[in-house]
# Entry
Amino acid sequence: MMMKEVTARLTQTELAQVGSGEVAYIRKIRSEDVPRCFPEAPDIDPSVDLWALFGADGTPILLTDNRSSTFYKAAEDELKTVSLH
# Structure
C-alpha cells in the first residue's frame, strides 16, 4: 500500500495559534531585546544572562536570570516546552 504525502497549508495567523495555551518555548534573550518583548521591565545590566518564556504564539510570559525558573513557570501553567533550532 502506497502512502500519499499530504501537505497542509496554514496562514501565518493559523500557524501562530498552533499549540496556543499548551506549548511554550524558552530562549536566552539579550538585555537590548528586553524593552521590545517586556516593555514593563526595568533597565537591566547587559552582563546579566537572561532567559525568557514565550507562549507558542510568541506572547512573552516570564523574564528571569535563572533558566530553571522558566521551566518551573511552564510547568505551573501546564505548558509543554519545546526546543527551537
